[in-house]
Write a structure and sequence with these properties.
Number of helices: 13
């Protein structure tokens, strides 16, 4: 005997009723949201460890939206800017959601191969003016799909009939059913039947790589925007220093003009130079405001929010070593071909296309499915009032097969041919991606090399410009040069100071772009912060 009625029907009925009410009520929507988040975040960490060897912070709740502007001025350094971008960047939140959705799809595909419980209840009432009958059908059980193509179901079905007449009568019956279906030709084997799960697992791997690539790209974008804003601060400082020097020289020339030692037209030249210096300060300040607004956009801050950067970091950048790359172009290309996450996705995508072609070829085969079913019903009418009562020896079974000959495979043929073309396209795209990366790395390498040499040249030019100002000022005391010569020297010194800062920033930006191009950029686990000093040291050790 597989089951029996039990000692007391009332407690059993109470438990069934409680379970039925709980099933109908279900769980709250908030419960389902949190449950989905928990499962997705577990999958993401699992894949991050497998792909990256670490678990960078990931949560949809990390997005803080666009903050309301405050009345205070935010003083920001590079670290603070990176943190703000991670929290408020709208485009970066899109990358988070893409990874989340890939992992969410995987939860469904994994569930498709897990045991799945089901329960159904259906009731009906029918009759006429003399007689009516009520029926209550219920079924429950578990079904499972297996990776080699087998599908199985185990269920219990119950039927309760009641006749509403002057002499009511009840009838009840139950049955245990076990059914399986197994394909033997088309759709057989884990490589075919489990392809959906395989691809879903790989899609999360790709999404993890893409998200990490996006984290690094965000860090590069923020750092570059921050450095260029620092350059604008330096331009303002240089313009203001030039204005101070120009005014000082104008006052000196004005004194000389009063004593007749300098012609009045040279005083006019000096006055024009002062006005030009004032306009240079005005332009520099406007450019700085524009640059800060651009930085706010990258950080996800409202334009109305006032910010100010920590300009002391420019001195730290200046103090850092500026040297040639410790790796040649071909070595850098090989590093990129081994480390670029987007290229790894391309390579795995080509492998996916091969599997898709193999599956499309499998669909050209004949379809041969074998199936079987065993049912253990309620034994007979006498015992039909005990629906949980079964006797295994009264079982029934049936088995069979279904063969679908490949007489019409036009659609499958087209799918197969399309898959072959997609495979060839994927292989060509991989070659194209490798060549593009080769070119990108080569250009980035040349850009860093040019930026390094430009910085050396601009430093030498600044020394010459500074010496020229000092010598011209000395010669002007003795009337051996004209005012115009000093004004030109001061203007040249201003341009030289700006050029040195621009060359330094350009070198740092190019260096950062080079590290990103070869795929060895380090981003911290909690956000998207780049330590420039660490990057420089690690890049040299790579070389």
């Amino acid at each position: 005997m597989i089951g029996s009625e039990g000692r007391s029907a009332r407690p059993w009925r109470h438990r069934v009723l409680a379970g039925l009410l709980a099933g109908i009520a279900g769980c709250s929507s908030d419960y389902y949201r949190k449950d989905a988040d928990s499962e997705v975040y577990t999958i993401v960490k699992e894949k991050q460890v497998a792909v990256l060897g670490e678990t960078p912070a990931f949560s949809l709740d990390d997005f803080g939206g666009t903050p309301a502007p405050t009345g205070a001025v935010l003083l920001l350094n590079l670290h603070a800017c990176q943190r703000l971008a991670v929290k408020h960047s709208r485009s970066f939140q899109n990358e988070r959601e893409a990874l989340y959705l890939a992992a969410l799809s995987l939860t469904g595909d994994r569930h498709a191969y897990a045991p799945q419980l089901f329960a159904r209840i259906a009731g009906s009432l029918r009759g006429d003016k003399e007689r009516s009958t009520g029926a209550l059908d219920s079924s429950g059980g578990v079904r499972k799909a297996w990776l080699w193509g087998l599908s199985s179901t185990v269920s219990i079905a119950n039927t309760l009939l009641r006749s509403f007449t002057s002499n009511p009568q009840d009838a009840a019956s139950s049955a245990i059913n076990v059914a399986i279906t197994q394909p033997l030709l088309r759709g057989f084997g884990p490589d075919i039947a489990g392809e959906r799960l395989t691809q879903s697992e790989r899609n999360v791997v790709y999404a993890v790589r893409s998200f990490e690539h996006a984290r690094r790209a965000l860090a590069v974008d923020v750092t570059q925007a921050y450095l260029r804003a620092l350059q604008l601060y330096d331009s303002v400082k240089n313009a203001e220093a030039n204005l101070t020097s120009t005014r000082t020289n104008f006052n000196r020339i004005a004194a000389h003009a009063e004593s007749g030692r300098v012609p009045l037209f040279q005083l006019d030249q000096a006055k024009t130079s002062v006005l030009s210096a004032e306009e240079s300060v005005n332009r520099s300040r406007t450019s700085l405001r524009d640059g800060l607004d651009s930085l706010k956009l990258v950080l996800g801050l409202p334009i109305e929010q006032a910010i100010e950067l920590d300009t002391s970091e420019l001195a730290l950048l200046t103090a850092m070593d500026v040297s040639e790359l410790g790796v040649d172009s071909e070595e850098a290309i090989q590093i990129a071909l081994n480390c670029r996450l987007d290229l790894l996705n391309r390579r795995d995508g080509a492998a996916d296309a091969e599997r898709v072609a193999a599956i499309a070829e499998d669909q050209l085969k004949a379809q041969l499915d074998v199936s079987g079913r065993i049912s253990i019903p309620t034994p007979d009418q006498r015992e039909a009032q005990r629906p949980g009562y079964f006797k295994a020896e009264r079982f029934t079974y049936d088995a069979g097969f279904q063969l679908d000959l490949p007489l019409d495979r036009k659609n499958e043929r087209n799918t197969y041919r399309r898959a072959l073309l997609d495979l060839e396209r994927a292989r060509r795209n991989l070659v194209d991606a490798e060549e593009r990366i080769r070119r990108e790395v080569a250009v980035a390498h040349r850009t860093v090399d040019r930026a390094y040499r430009s910085y050396q040249i601009e430093q030498a030019s600044r020394e010459v410009a500074h010496t020229r100002v000092e010598s011209t000022q000395e010669l002007l005391k003795y009337g051996r040069v004209e005012t115009r010569d000093l004004l030109e020297a001061l203007d040249a010194e201003l341009r030289a100071n700006n050029a040195v800062t621009a060359a330094l920033i350009e070198f740092r930006v190019a260096y950062l772009g080079f590290l990103h191009a070869i795929g060895i950029l380090h981003v911290d686990e909690e956000g998207a912060y780049i330590d420039l000093a660490r990057e420089e040291g690690d890049a040299k050790s790579e070389g």
